[in-house]
UniProtKB/TrEMBL annotation:
It comes from the Bacteria. It comes from Hyphomonas beringensis. GO terms for molecular function: FMN binding; riboflavin reductase (NADPH) activity. Keywords: Oxidoreductase. The keyword Phosphoprotein does not apply. This is Flavin reductase like domain-containing protein.
Length: 408
């Protein structure tokens, strides 16, 4: 085990540690209010022995993490802290978050952060599905923080600024957007999250499991460590297994497609005019530069595409690279039967090809060669004109989903 440090929101230093093989799948443990990463000792040991790489981090104002000078412990600051931590990790972990940290993790992952994690485990996170549960949550925060103040490793200003009552709708809305595997673990004796409320809250997630640990209260991970660890490891092995999918020649084509999807690409729309002078086009992410001298590029067009015939005979065509604001355009040109150009601003380029207006880049090409490529044709073009907008960022595609650049 060795210590690590993350840069949190507004530069706050967040301290943590990491243990286990760096090639094993990662689990990030996030403690609750008034606790520290040391509260995960038993869980971390079990995960490490089960072949998981374990990272733990202290929340701002807790443990060894920095106490911010401005005293900001509001929910937004905590959410941005965790978002920063996840963005600085080398792989997408399963996030295991206890108590109020479960709300923080739900907001991070549900609010445009699904690409930062591979799963979510909520350890007795307050459900906030009934009137009065916010009062229970705030009372629990006060009780825990008062007990923690004597340790000297907790900033007393936290309890003065963190209020849960106005977060209900935000957390519930975020839960409804999460499509990752989720586990909600509740201590059967917990007074913070009644069983009926906890079950309803878990039901807000699209792919959630619910488990109760007998003879455990709110601090379920420590009250009944063996049963909690068994529940957690069972979920991980079933839903986020250590073994990686493997494709062998002749086996499942879906696995091969998923493996190919590990190569992140940009997104383009390939356009041309058919024999009648009408514009045709389709979305394609199999695009690459081939040569600078002569200036060549290639795109792969599916044999089943309705635009294939026009692209095969067209003397000129264009490749339009999309920016992050053009995801709707990508979806439009990926759907068969849509009247694509009537819904998309475009213009005719200098070489009589349709160019999508405002694209990140436009390449006007003369057909150079066509090759058969299994269930696609490989269309090679010689670039005659190119223009681009350096002020925009690209729309990316990775693992079957749209992505965007992240600047850590």
């Amino acid at each position: 085990m060795h210590d690590i440090s993350f840069k949190g929101f507004a530069g706050v230093a967040l301290k943590g540690d990491v243990s286990g093989n760096e090639n094993d799948p990662s689990v990030l443990l996030v403690h609750g209010v008034g606790q520290s990463r040391d509260d995960w000792n038993d869980v971390a040991d079990a995960l490490r022995k089960a072949g998981r790489r374990v990272l733990r981090v202290d929340l701002r104002g807790h443990g060894e993490s920095e106490w911010p000078e401005d005293g900001r412990y509001d929910f937004d600051a905590c959410v941005e802290d965790l978002r920063c931590v996840l963005a600085q990790m080398a792989s997408r972990p399963v996030v295991v978050a206890s108590s109020l940290a479960g709300w923080i993790a739900t907001a991070v992952i549900g609010e445009d952060g699904a690409h930062l994690a591979s799963g979510l485990v909520l350890v007795d996170a307050p459900p906030e599905s009934e009137t009065g549960s916010s009062e229970r949550s705030d009372a629990a925060i006060r009780a825990v923080t008062e007990a923690a103040l004597s340790s000297g490793r907790f900033d007393p200003r936290f309890q003065e600024t963190f209020y849960s009552g106005d977060l209900v709708q935000r957390v519930q809305s975020a839960a409804g957007t999460i499509r990752l595997p989720v586990l909600f673990v509740r201590g059967a004796l917990s007074r913070i999250s009644p069983a009926d409320e906890a079950g309803r809250f878990a039901g807000r997630f699209a792919d959630a499991e619910y488990a109760e640990v007998r003879e455990a209260g709110h601090a379920v991970a420590t009250d009944s460590a063996d049963l909690f660890n068994a529940t957690l490891l069972d979920f991980l092995e079933r839903r986020v297994p250590r073994s990686v999918p493997e494709y062998r020649s002749g086996s499942d084509a879906r696995t091969l497609r998923d493996a190919m999807g590990c190569f992140a690409t940009g997104v383009t729309v390939v356009t041309a005019k058919d024999a009648d002078g009408e514009p045709v086009g389709l979305t394609a992410n199999s695009f690459t530069s081939v040569s600078l001298d002569p200036p060549l590029l290639l795109v792969c067009i599916a044999n089943t595409s309705k635009s294939r015939a026009a692209l095969e005979v067209a003397e000129t065509f264009a490749v339009n690279v999309l920016h992050i604001g053009q995801q709707p355009t990508s979806n439009l040109f990926a759907k068969p039967g849509e009247d694509r150009f009537s819904q998309t601003p475009w213009e005719t380029g200098q070489h009589d090809v349709p160019l999508l207006s405002g694209a990140l880049a436009n390449f006007e090409c003369r057909q150079h060669a066509i090759h058969e490529g299994g269930d696609h044709i490989i269309l090679i073009g010689e670039v005659m004109r190119a223009k681009f907008d350096p002020r925009r960022d690209p729309l990316l595609y990775f693992n079957g989903k749209y992505r965007r650049l992240h600047f850590a």
